[in-house]
User: Fold these one by one.
Assistant:
Number 1:
Amino acid sequence: MPTSNPGDFVFLPVCFSIVCYNGLKVIQGTSIGDNTVTCGSAAQCYNMSAQAGQYLDVVKAGCSLWRCLFASNRCISTTFQKIPISMCCCNTDRCNQGNAVGFE
């Protein structure tokens, strides 16, 4: 009966990566653009936004493991100095563009 030794196997790491929009906008009515980045394994796409005033609408998009550690596939909202702030994370390609589901 054949036996196997632990050295007889080759273990290959499985890495999954996603593509996220990557950019920054500050003026209301503009967009983060079409630039994308390929995220490392376990990272997710994120979209952080804060609206302050009539014309200032800050949105930062990219990929992150740590920012999305407790917000996987959901949005978290808070208020800081009377400014509403929202951060959403998702784990599919290009899911962090403004106006996508969960990113209004």
Number 2:
Amino acid sequence: MNAVNFYSSANQGRECLLPITTFLGSLAIATLLWVLPTRASTFAPIPAWSFANPTPASYDGFAFSVALSGNSALIGDYGKNGYSGVSYLFDVTTGNLQQSFANPTPTWGDLFGRSVALSGNSALIGAEGDTGSTGAAYLFDATTGNLLQSFASPTPTVAGRFGSSVALSGNSALIGAYADSITGAAYLFDTTTGNLLQSFAAPTFARSRFGASVALSGNTALIGAYGANGSIPAAYLFDVATGNLLQTFTSPAPAPGDFFGSSVALSGNSALVGAYGEKSGDNRYSGAAYLFDVTTGNLQQSFANPTPGPYDNFGSSVALSDNIALIGAEGDNTYRGVAYLFDATTGNLLQSFASPTPASYEYFGSSVALSGNSILIGTGGTNSITGVDSAYLYASNSSGSSTLSQSVPGPLPLLGLGAAFAWSRKLRRRIHTHATQHSVGDGLPSPNQPE
């Protein structure tokens, strides 16, 4: 496959559409590369790759959850084959499909791939709908595609949703079950032996949906509990070695229905917590996100929606890497969606990202991720009728150069041959009611079905 990029230096500093011609044998396929003017900041908003569903079908839920590690991206497709689900691993440098992970025990409604995590050569995939929504999670070798471990809840509960959230770090896997034993739970496993290392229970006894979001970094685990039935939303930081509770993070501006803790991320000494339901003025579900110091528990930054509007859902997805925070606002602009990149130290907005092919109800930013020199933003299974959901990879310009060509690692083949996107565990469960009258969700208000 050869590609011709007609980029010209005359386009530098201007928003433009660049024609790309890709040849498959004797067939020439013309596409357009959308670019924004570059600026003197760390990341230039230029899609390096556009990844589409390899086998598109209606109501797939492709790109609802994704993970990124090194040169590989894992993306879930939970709606495939009657919601049995599948997941795909792609090379982010070439766009090639590396592995297809099939549901080991396929059954209608398993939702395999609705949560994913990736670390090194290990891929962790949740199937919260397995066995009457008791749930399951599976660990695969990302290189060979072999199944390494099958995880089940140590305290299985019908509709417990074990596997609704997953995280990987080193030899540990953290798996959430937000309805397990009513209050919710999360479990830490050894990925080598499959043994249970820790059980984390909700510090409160209300239906807090503890375990709806999880993050894992080194010796700490962050577990979100966005609240239900009057319980106070929070995010809890634990020591994974001892199981001790280290910090309890709550919203600086608590309000009913703010869904603080619906998305979480960890990096270094910082914890990022989304609250997509927080109001801004009269704008319901405008959203917010907060950065905390994991050592002291102190609030470091408050990230407000840069363009607040009703049902923007800013904070529905979050990612954190060193001093950079990436926050999705999937409902912005008639649910076309936006994602924002912030300096986590100063709180300054660095970049705004919008879909290269904006459309109403695309939900761009419903999943986000940061890893090394890459930003990945997904549309989260929203163009369900046509099955054309995508995820977009953006390349880092670490030098901050304003030269557009230095930010483009290669041509952008928009061929739908592969798909990739990175980690973002947004644990708000958007309710999809399809033509089959099948509905999946946990009762959280949908952007297009407000409370």
Number 3:
Amino acid sequence: MKTKLLFILSLFILFFLAVNPSLALKPDVTISEVEDARLLGGKKILLGQKIEFKIKICVRSDSPVPLDGFHIVITLKKPSGKILYAKQTVNDYIPIGRCENYNFKLNYKADQVGTWKYWVSLYTKDQKYKLDEISGTFEVVGIPKAELEVLDIVGWATASSMIITGLALALTRIIK
């Protein structure tokens, strides 16, 4: 009886995986951390800098398969509303239960002051399945433009140095 039940259960599992093969092949992956590079603190980037993302990708320990290559899509929305896209395929192998850090340098400069929004999406290598997505915001700040000019160079003395000089002169007159 137990063998019959076990046989029926295994047939059910095999049938379920045959009907939905994505469950057998799709790794359980999360983007656990996205950090903007070149930050001044509080996710601020200087106007004119190129944008770079530091991303940590983890394959969970209960994942049915490891991550064998993946595709990253980074979408940026400028304060003006213009949308920018960046895509990159990575052929790395991440085993089950492991995390890896990646730097993605974009060919976009932070060319508008204000709040930018980003979405980072992780896809399988063939781009059939979206495994995870994370979003957030960062600030692009401008710095003032200023010039420096030397008008004159003069000598100066502090009050204490003037007092010491006066005392020295007085002492030399007393000693004479």
Number 4:
Amino acid sequence: MGSKSRLAIVAAIAALGAGLAAPSDGLGAGAPKCFSSQLTLKFVTFQGATGGRFWEMAFKNTSTTCTLRGFPKVKLLDQHGHAIHKSIGHWTLVPVRTVTLARNKLAFFVFRYTDGGFCPGMSFDAARFEFTPPNDHAGFVYNPVPKNHGVPSLCT
């Protein structure tokens, strides 16, 4: 794959939880797309099993009804806040959906990677994660260190 390694990382937006509805039911049909300025990032849960690390996160709408379509972008950052240039993919089994997000409702997504301890000599550290809503350019920087009990190590 050349100088950029493909990571076992997945980000997928899913319409989970009460209050989320597809535009086809009439709720929010024609609603404008969501932007970072009207969303906040929420930590939901963290799990680790047999080398996999799963971060469930959510975008919370703090404004008027809007829509998200597609997958959030994920950027890995070093301890100085600089981008770590690794290729990040999406789980292709998850179809692209439009999620209508009413005020104070959540759109959940999962970020998954393989822990660096399972690939000695082929791992790197990512001190921060940046999550950007679909079709937007402004992201939210998240510090995973407290929940992870240390800087996450990821397989390349």
